[in-house]
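Hi team, as promised in this morning's meeting, here are the two structures we talked about. I've kept the exact order from the run log so nobody has to guess. The first one is mostly here for context; it's the second one we should focus on when we meet again. Sequence first, then the predicted C-alpha cells.
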Amino acid sequence: MELIDYQNVEIRQREETVLRNVNLRIHNGDFVYLLGKVGSGKSTLMKTFYAELPIYSGDATFLGYDLSTITLAQIPYLRRKIGVVFQDFQLLPDRSVEDNLLFVLQATGWKDRQVMLNHAHDMLAQVGMADKGYKMPYHLSGGEQQRVVIARALLNTPDVILADEPTGNLDQQTGEDIMNLLYGISQAGMTVIMSTHNPRWPEKYPGRMLYFSNGEISEANPNDKQSL
C-alpha cells in the first residue's frame, strides 16, 4: 500500500528553496534511508511529513492527507499516525520512563489509567525495557533512552516511524542494538524512514536509499558508496 506520494514538490524555508522536483513514493513496510550531507534537506523533508513545514508547490499526500490543503484541525490526527524517534531523545527529564509514556497516551486521548499502564508496560517490554519504567531518564544510558523513545513512538500503533539520526549520539555497539530494533519493526511490516550518516547501516541492514544533493532527491544505487 502506498503511504507517501510526492509529485513535483518544492519545499521552502524562509523563502529559500531547500528541495525541488521531489518525486517520491513510499510503500507500507519499506525501510528507507535518507542520505546526504548536513543541510541537504533530510530533516526538512521529514518536517513536511508531519506538517511542521508547508508544501510550497506540487502534489503531496501522506497517509491519506493532502499536505497542500491540510487544516490545523487535521494535523493532530495525522501526527497520531506517525511515531518520531529523535537523535537527542527529547524525554521529559522530570518524569519517570513510565510517566513519559503515560503523558503521551493522555495527550492522545487515552482515559483509563490501568489500560494505559498495561499498554506502556507492553511497549517497554517490546523494546527490552520492561524493568526500567520506574527510572528517571537521567539514570539511563543513551541506548536505554533511545529504546524508551522507540517505545514512545510505538504507543499509538503508527503507520510510519520517522527516525532522525537515531544512532547519532550512540557508540557503535549501542547504535547497532537500536538498528536491530528498528529493522525488526520494519520486518514486521511497519514503514521506517531514517536519516543517517553511518555508512555501515545500509550495508548491514538493506533498504531503499534516497540521496539528497544540490536541492534534489534521487534513488541511490545500493552499491554507490558516494551516497554514504
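And here is the second protein, the one for discussion:
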Amino acid sequence: MRKKKALFLDRDGIIVNEDQVDSYEKIIWIPHVFQSLARIRRESDFEFVMVSNQDGVGTPSFPYEDYVKCQNRIISTLEGEDVYFDDINIDFSLPEDNCPTRKPGIKMIEAYADGSYDLDASFMIGDRLTDMLLAKNIGCRGIWFAPEDASLPEEYEGTVALVSDNWIRIADFLLNSGIKTHRTASLSRDTAETGISLSLDLDGTGKGEMETGIPFFDHMLAQIIKHSRIDVTAFSFSGDLEVDEHHSVEDLAIVFGSLIKQALGDKRGIERYGYEVLTMDDVVATVALDFSSRPELIYQVQFQREYIGSFPTEMVEHFFRSFSSASGSNVYISCTSGNAHHMAEAVFKAFARALRNAVKRIPGATELPSTKGAL
C-alpha cells in the first residue's frame, strides 16, 4: 500500500502575518497563500496538517475566546478558498513550560511517525528555524518560509529543501513543476595547456569545490561556489602551472562561463540582471551582470600590489573578461582601493551574489526577459 504524505503547516508567519492574532484586524493574509494552498490541495495527495504554537492562550493577555474566534475565521476563510485541513494541532503553552507538545517537540504530531506516512516525501513549512528543527526531529524535509538570501545554518542544510517566502514558488516546488527541475550542465575542454572537466547545478546550495593548484585563486573560486549557491558536482583540472597561471585562470573562466550559458538555455523566466554592492572591511565592491548574449567587461579596479600570495592581481580582470566572453554577458566591476586581498575577495563575492540573482528564476514566469523577443 502506498504511504500517505503530510504537509505540516505553521499558521502565523506563513498563512497569516506573524502576530498574536487575537482580533479580526490582526488577520492579515500572506500574499498568494489562497491560490497556492488551493493548488497544492487540488493537484497533490498531501494531507494538510496545521502545527502551531499559540503562546499562552487562556492567560489574561490572550483570552481563549479571542483565540477561538480568530482561529475559526481563519479556517472558515481558507475553506471558502478550497483549502481544507485534515488535522489541526495547536499548543497553548509558553516557552518556559517546556511542554513536549510545543514545537520543535514532536509530541503533537508523533502519530505521523507510526510508519503509515512517507516522511521522506513529507514537508514542514514554517517561518522559524524551530519549525525546521521540528522537521528534522520527525524525519521529514523542511521549507523555510524566509527570504531566499537568508543565511541557513549548516545544521539544517540536510533538512531544508527550499528557502523561499514566495508561495507561488513553494507551490511550484511541491508540485514538481518546471521550477523544481535543476538546470545542470557539463563540459570537458582539453588543450595543449590545460585539461578541465566541470559539471555544475545552477539550482544548488553552494556545495563542491574547484582546486587548480593556485592557492589564492582556489580561495576565490570557493567564494563563487558558496555565494552563488551553484553546486559543483564534478571537477577535474590539469594546467601548465610550470609556465605560469595565465592559461589555467583563463581556461577555467571560459569553461565556467560556457557552462553558465549552457545551463541557462533560452533564458526564459530568469531575472537576467543581477547586481550586488558588498563591503569587506576597508573596501566596497560593486558588480552588475546582464546575460544579454553580448559580452562586455567594464573593469574599474586598481590594485596597489602586483601579487596576492603567488597570484598576479592582473589575472582578476582577465578571469572576468574571459567569463564575459564565454557566457555572453555584460559584466561591470568596480572596487574602492584598500587591502589587496580584501579588494579581490570583495569583488569575487559580489560577483557570485550578482550571478545568483541574475540566474534566479521568477516564480511562474515563462517569458523571455527582453522586449526584442530574442537574447
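Starting points for discussion:
Helices lie at 33-43, 64-80, 129-138, 167-174, 215-228, 246-264, 314-327, 340-359.
The first helix runs from residue 33 to 43.
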